[in-house]
Design goal:
- It contains 19 helices and 21 strands.
């Protein structure tokens, strides 16, 4: 069996027949006659079809399914599914199955998601996209940041309230900055022992190649005077340095295997477009997870939505995200960079309440990126409407598409000319994407360390805002003040920065998100991390006795 034969069979059933013409088979599959004929010989030998070549002008070639083909197909599905991996089963959903058989296949697949207890405890979860890089220096998506916390350890851990020692068990102040003492006996996933040199390598790599250079700029250099001692040369105060070294980019990975080998509770066993698999690590710093395997399989957005809304997904948690969905003006390439009055007209035209009224994850109107401090600014006089086309880019997801359509209608009603186009996450920072955009719709989820996340959002090369506004000298001077003031003064400076980028009509915060996350009821009480994803190292299966 293959996708061509299944698609041809479905085409026949839709015509209430047991046969199709060769021309109809070509139309159903998109393959050429030559490619179809090559497969017909195999299908006929297997006893699935009878082929009757057309004789003479006006007589078409016919592919006749044997009367028992439907039963043979079902039996083949049942027998084959036992041997399939989840990644292979996911590919089946791309075939053009007869509707009833597709439902049966879906039921088989959905039944294998969740906890699976055989010779090892496994948690299998569907994803709508392949995971991007897990290299700590490249991560800018919440899911990858969450998984990185399971794959890597850092020198310190920040839980949103206090700093906890991790790979560093002690810190002391010195004349040059700080001296860290590293835990002994910690192993990398490849069996090598962690040393101070590994930490020096990871941190110096971050300082040299990281895309959050401004954030880590107060650290001048890192070296090691002894096997389990690391010196941090800096003039920054301890609170800043500890929180800085607990961030995802400061994760410690093994030289030559950055993004794949760390010391965390799970090790990366497999990564591909179809599946990513984590396996529990026995010799890590933290207690060994109860789960043996956590696996993510790539599915279509439609199939994922159908799975997540099944009746047994009764465990619902609402995660109020720090951050916001926003629109940013392209201050590098768009004609709008030289038209502040037009940008202000666009800003004042946008009706944020109408966006929130669309419902779903749209929680409340945003005037900044901190929901608890989201205060509306006084509106100035309206700007100038310009007839030049405005290219509005959005992600290819349902919510983002709805946002773009509504904003386009609002702007069109006000007299603007709007063209809507799509970009993908993987192409967000590519020059081709940026050059064709005037306004880009995006989102920022700041759930690791709100203060430092905001700073990274405004300055990092992995942030759309940081990338597009890096040329603004006034903003850069404002950001440099963070390096000179105590942490308790930061919240007021956050408000000042938000006010500046809004008043300059650089960024338009649209709405804050409260995301519904649904989990199967068999999970019980799911511990959630700061990104709104399960803490996989804390999940466990009650043994069947």
């Amino acid at each position: 069996m293959n996708p061509k034969l299944v698609a041809i069979y479905r085409s026949a059933l839709e015509r209430d027949r047991q046969d199709v013409t060769l021309r109809e088979a070509v139309s159903a599959t998109g393959y050429s006659e030559k490619q179809i004929k090559r497969d017909i010989k195999v299908w006929a030998q297997a006893g699935w079809v009878v082929y009757r070549p057309g004789q003479g002008r006006g007589h078409e070639s016919i592919i006749q399914f044997v009367p028992s083909f439907g039963q043979k197909l079902t039996e083949w599905v049942e027998a084959s599914f036992v041997r399939l991996t989840m990644a292979e089963a996911a590919k089946w959903l791309e075939w053009e199955w007869p509707p009833l058989l597709r439902e049966k296949i879906q039921a088989h697949i959905w039944g294998r998601f969740g906890f699976e207890q055989t010779e090892e405890d496994r948690f299998i979860f569907p994803r709508t996209r392949a995971l991007a890089s897990l290299d700590p220096l490249d991560i800018h998506i919440a899911m990858e940041a969450s998984l990185a916390r399971h794959l890597f350890d850092r020198l310190f851990e920040w839980d949103g309230a206090i700093i906890r020692p991790s790979l560093a068990h002690h810190i002391e102040t010195t004349r040059f900055g700080f001296r860290l003492y590293i835990r002994k006996g910690v192993m990398f996933h490849n069996g090598m022992s962690l040393s101070a040199n590994d930490i020096v390598y990871s941190l110096n790599r971050l300082l040299r190649y990281g895309k959050q250079r401004w954030l880590f700029a107060p650290i001048e250099r890192v070296d090691s005077p002894a096997p389990y001692v690391v010196d941090i040369h800096t003039t920054a105060h301890r609170g800043y340095v500890e929180r800085l070294l607990s961030q995802t980019p400061a994760s410690i990975s093994y030289k030559g295997f950055e993004g794949t080998v760390g010391t965390g509770p799970f090790k990366l066993e497999r990564v591909s477009e179809d599946v990513t698999r984590f396996r529990a690590f026995d010799r890590g710093l933290r207690p060994r997870p109860s789960l043996d395997v956590v696996e993510f399989v790539t599915f279509s957005e439609v199939d994922h939505a159908e799975w997540s809304m099944r009746d047994d997904h009764r465990l619902v948690k609402w995660i109020a995200e720090a951050g916001a969905r926003y629109a940013v003006f392209n201050m590098r390439h768009s004609w709008l960079k030289d038209a502040p009055d037009v940008r202000r007209a666009i800003l004042h035209t946008i009706d944020k309440a109408a966006l929130v009224a669309l419902g779903r994850e749209r929680h409340q109107v945003a005037h900044g990126f901190f929901p608890e401090a989201s205060l509306e600014l006084e509106r100035e006089a309206r700007g100038r409407v310009d007839a030049r086309p405005i290219r509005l880019l959005h992600l290819p997801y349902a919510t983002a598409t709805e946002d773009a359509m509504l904003l386009a209608r609002q702007l069109t009603t006000a007299g603007f000319t709007v063209e809507i186009d799509v970009y993908t996450l993987s192409a967000l920072f590519e020059e081709e994407t940026l050059r064709r955009a005037d306004i880009i719709l995006c989102g920022e989820m700041m759930n690791e360390d709100l203060d430092l996340a905001f700073l990274a959002f405004m300055t990092s090369e992995l942030s759309l805002v940081g990338k597009l506004l890096c040329g603004d000298a006034t903003l850069r001077n404002m950001m440099d003040r963070y390096h000179q003031i105590d942490l308790d003064v930061w919240p007021s400076l956050h408000r000042e920065v938000e006010r500046y980028v809004t008043e300059q009509a650089y960024v338009v915060p649209l709405y804050h998100v409260a995301r519904e996350r649904r989990f199967p009821s068999f999970l019980g009480d799911v511990p959630i991390d700061i990104f709104g994803h399960p803490r996989y190292e804390q999940l466990w299966i009650r043994p069947s006795l």
